[in-house]
C-alpha cells in the first residue's frame, strides 16, 4: 500500500521537484525544492564510508551524496530495487540502508537515536541546530532536554555529558577536586542528572514498606514519568504515589 501510494505520488510530483528520490524523509521544502535537513546526515554510517559508497553509489557522481541544504538524489539502493526513478519504496532495502549506511543514504533522521519528539515548547529552535552545537559543551545539555532528535540524543533520556570524553577515565567521577567539574560536564557518565539521581535514590531506598498510594492513577502517572520527572517535587510524589514511586 505504502509502495503504491509513493509510486502514485512519484508520478504526480512535478519533474522539477522530483530530485530527491523515494520518500522525502529527512528533507524539508526550502521554497523551491526539497533539500536535505541537517539531521539527514548527522549520524555516522555503521559500516565504513567507503563500503557504503560502493553499496549505495551516488546516482549523479558530480552531485555526490546527500548534504544538508542541497538536493542530491538519494542513492537508489537506499530505498528500492529498481534501477531508475520513479521507483517504489521497498521497505527491506530501506531497512538495510538504515542499519548499515544511514549517512550515505540521508536517512539519519530515521535512526532510533534521531527519531523522537522534542518538547512542546523548546527554549531554542530545534530545526536549526547545527552539528557544531551538538558537540558544544555550552549547548549539549540544553539540546538533550529540549531537542533530543536534533543531535541523536533520543536514547539518552535527556541526560548527556556536556563534554565528549568523560568516559575516557571514569575515576574522575570520584576525584575530590573534580566534583564541580563532573557535576557540570559529565552528568551522564557520573550519574549526576537530576532525574536519574532521583530514580536511583527512590528505587534503592532501604525501607521495605511504603505509605499506600492516595491516588488510584499512579500506574498511569508513573508511565508518564511522574516518579522521575523533576517537574514534580518529592513531596508531591510521596503524597500521591509513595508506593508506586517507592518513596520511604
Ligand atoms: C517517511 O518514510 C515512511 C516510510 O518509508 C513513509 O511512510 C513516510 O511517508 C515518509 N515521510 C515523508 C515525509 O516522506
Ligand atoms: C532551494 O534549494 C535548491 C536546491 O539546492 C536551490 O537551487 C535553491 O536556490 C534553494 N532555494 C532557496 C529559496 O533557498
TrEMBL record:
What is the taxonomic lineage of the source species? Eukaryota, Metazoa, Ecdysozoa, Nematoda, Chromadorea
Classification via Gene3D superfamilies? 1.10.10.1940
* PANTHER family, sorted: SHKT DOMAIN-CONTAINING PROTEIN (PTHR21724)
Signal sequence residues: 1-18
Q: Name one Pfam family in it.
A: ShK
Family annotation (InterPro entries): ShKT_dom
- Domain ShKT: start-end pairs: 207-248
Could you tell me which SMART domains the record lists for this protein?
ShKT
Record's keyword annotation contains Nucleotide-binding: no
Q: What is this protein called?
A: ShKT domain-containing protein
Top-rank taxon of the source lineage equals Eukaryota
Where does this protein come from, organism-wise?
Answer: Caenorhabditis nigoni
Keywords linked to the UniProt accession: Signal
Amino acid at each position: 500500500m505504502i509502495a503504491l501510494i509513493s509510486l502514485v505520488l512519484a508520478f504526480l510530483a512535478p519533474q522539477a521537484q522530483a530530485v530527491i528520490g523515494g520518500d522525502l524523509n529527512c528533507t524539508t521544502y526550502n521554497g523551491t525544492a526539497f533539500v536535505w535537513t541537517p539531521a539527514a546526515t548527522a549520524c555516522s554510517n555503521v559500516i565504513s564510508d567507503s563500503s557504503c559508497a560502493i553499496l549505495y553509489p551516488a546516482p549523479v557522481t558530480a552531485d555526490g551524496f546527500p548534504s544538508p541544504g542541497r538536493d542530491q538524489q538519494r542513492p537508489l539502493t537506499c530505498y528500492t530495487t529498481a534501477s531508475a526513478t520513479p521507483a517504489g519504496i521497498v521497505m527491506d532495502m530501506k531497512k538495510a540502508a538504515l542499519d548499515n549506511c544511514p549517512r550515505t543514504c540521508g536517512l539519519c533522521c530515521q535512526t532510533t537515536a534521531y527519531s523522537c519528539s522534542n518538547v512542546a515548547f523548546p527554549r531554542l529552535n530545534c530545526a536549526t541546530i547545527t552539528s557544531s552545537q551538538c558537540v558544544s559543551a555550552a549547548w549539549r545539555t540544553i539540546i538533550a532536554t529540549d531537542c533530543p532528535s536534533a543531535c541523536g540524543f533520543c536514547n539518552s533520556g535527556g541526560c548527556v555529558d556536556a563534554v565528549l570524553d568523560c568516559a575516557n577515565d571514569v575515576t574522575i567521577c570520584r576525584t575530590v577536586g573534580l566534583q564541580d567539574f563532573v557535576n557540570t560536564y559529565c552528568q551522564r557518565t557520573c550519574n549526576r542528572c537530576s532525574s536519574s539521581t532521583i530514580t536511583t535514590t527512590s528505587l534503592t531506598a532501604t525501607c521495605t514498606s511504603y505509605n499506600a498510594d492516595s491516588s488510584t492513577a499512579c500506574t498511569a502517572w508513573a508511565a508518564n514519568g511522574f516518579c522521575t520527572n523533576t517537574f514534580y517535587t518529592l513531596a508531591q510524589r510521596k503524597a500521591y504515589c509513595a508506593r508506586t514511586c517507592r518513596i520511604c
